[in-house]
Amino acid sequence: MEDYKFLFKVVLVGNAGVGKTCLVRRFTQGLFPPYQGATIGVDFLIKTVEVEGEKVKLQIWDTAGQERFRSITQSYYRSAHALILVYDISTQPTFDCLPDWLREIEQYANPRVLKVLVGNKIDREDREIPSHIGEDFARANEMYFIETSAKEADNVEKLFMEIAAQLTHEALVSRSHYNGISGEVSSSVIESKDGSESQCCKFS
Ligand SMILES: Nc1nc2c(ncn2[C@@H]2O[C@H](COP(=O)(O)OP(=O)(O)OP(=O)(O)O)[C@@H](O)[C@H]2O)c(=O)[nH]1
């Protein structure tokens, strides 16, 4: 039997080219890959981390940003424990599309899914979206917010580790819903969260 306490599914979404694949590769493999073309459909990578002394397995799903794959990627939303919505801080249209992505999330994801807004490519000097605009958008939509650079490995570890910590915390708090046989946390853990709890704050 595999040695881990919790398994969490984390799904990345956002426009084509914002850096979803690079964020996942940076975190799981510690590298910034040469451009390998757009993601086709959905890919996943796994990384086991340690949180509060427990082994936590993150199954990270990297979806294709291109419109033509939308029907495939939608089917991955429902089982997600966390959704990472990525835009590129140097490309305004990727930010302007966020409301469309949120509508998709609302339609297909678990209502209690942990949502994180990520402004990627902060190493670039041609920034178009100031940090506070991203942060305001996240706050208004009850999401966590963090800015990253997959290229420079800035905040990437922090992004995934904060998600792992938050989900582990929720799972431990909701222990009665924990399925101890498979070691997997069912999505009911997310549903059972106290509805009054605010999901909105900055990873700091
Ligand atoms: N400067 C900079 N470029 C980045 C960063 N992250 C990704 N890129 C570049 O952005 C381009 C797209 O990156 P991908 O990771 O393939 O983007 P994606 O969101 O997975 O795209 P799709 O698979 O089409 O949805 C590549 O040329 C990357 O090298 C970053 O943090 N900084």
Automatic annotation (TrEMBL):
Protein name per Swiss-Prot or TrEMBL: Ras-related protein Rab-30-like isoform X1
Pfam family, one: Ras
Source organism: Limulus polyphemus (Atlantic horseshoe crab)
Keyword terms: GTP-binding, Nucleotide-binding
PROSITE patterns from the UniProt entry: RAB (PS51419), RAS (PS51421)
